[in-house]
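User: What would this chain look like folded?
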Amino acid sequence: MSLPTPPARSDSARAIADAVRSGETTAADTVAAALGRIDDTNPRLNAFIDIFHQRASEQAKAIDTRVASGEGKNLPLAGVPIALKDNICLGWGRTTCASRMLEDYRSPFTATAAQRLINAGAIVVGKANLDEFAMGASGEHSVFGASKNPWDESRTCGGSSSGSACAVAAGLVPIALGSDTGGSIRQPASHTGTVGFKPTYGRVSRWGLVAFASSLDQIGPFATSVDDAALVYAIIAGTDPNDLTSSARSVDDQGDPLATTDAAAPDSQPLRIGVPRFAQSGGNHPAVDGALKAATAALANAGAEIVEVDLPHADHAIAAYYLIAPAEASSNLARFDGVRYGHRAESPADLEDLFVRSRTEGFGPEVRRRIMLGTHILSSGYYDAYYLTALKARRLIAGDYTRLLEGEDDASRCDALLMPPAPGPAFKLGDKLDDPLALYLEDIYTAGVSLAGLPAITIPAITSEVDGVTLPTGVQLVGAHWQEAKLLRLARVLEQSLPA
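Assistant: Here's the prediction, encoded as structure tokens.
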């Protein structure tokens, strides 16, 4: 069987839901087709950890019954098959985080973001692969093996949301949820030619997302178009009493974030797009420079003003991120001790032996590396020197972004920043596995945005030949806090302005 291609626009989530609601097709047929694609392709691509054949089929029949009874208008995702990254809890099947530690864990509840999609008529057909506990940039840190890029199976999908990106890129599902801590939605979206959207920190509930770094984690969608990403965002955004870090701020244009499509709307002045100088690094792959050039030209042709801007503390983002995130991971993962749940070592000699062997056997090398780093950072004598210093750097980094995007000077304020999501296109599986620093540097253009808590979206920009293979490369748009609707409108302008 030939490799599936990304779904055509007529197979978008919006089009599927419209067809199910109108009776043109059924949810049962739609889900059966998706499961067939997954069964044919997943043994090769390894996008899914679990596939829910029976449960998904039963839910599809229930959606058809609701549509037949006249409830279709209340189901914006009627019959749409979706995937969930396997660190997002679901009340059936397993939630493994791609780790031996939780290999057989079954959550008693469903995450808020997932439940909102289910309430809107979406049908979860499976749980997607990922780097263990979302720690990685290649998808290779999974106890179930790496997902393979549909564009070239010898290459990574990126990470940590590797399976979610793979499932959408291969046309297995039109929508998948991922999580983004330091770039884990935006980087794999670039590597797979999909749209990946990270909302403002606190805009989407984290309840039911297995914690990596609690001040950074955010759930967001993968899709084949900005339209579909906006549709999913509108459903999952909003406050949640179960998550005290979710914002009570009202969600602008939640019904239809793309209601306004003109490039200059809703502003009276032409859009001003800032291109950070540090993002035009000599270390970028030529494909990345080509994508940035194509996006800049497309926005200029659409009437936007393009300006170069400075982020003075951007060079410190990787160091700050890889101090803060491991410190929070060390704290969050302390609960996995072999006592309450998760992997437990057999026949421990004593309590200390139980703890040591359970955690050593349950966690993979990358997770253990980050736990040890984080524990060292938080230890007596190092807390002030490392963790507190990183928090101070975070404030400076965030200030650079907010000055450009939310500053009081109308003449210099930007409507968005345009940056690469990664320094290169998808790389070969195994190329960077033995070099943690090289993998950490994959986050060079995304970590600062996460530290600032800003919304950002990756959209496909170009395809180019890399070592004899055609690969996609995306660009990243970064917006002001809580301005998701404006950012999505701008992203659609760019999407429509780029060459087909």
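Confidence is low (pLDDT under 50) at residues 1-10, 260-267. If you want, I can go into more detail on any region.
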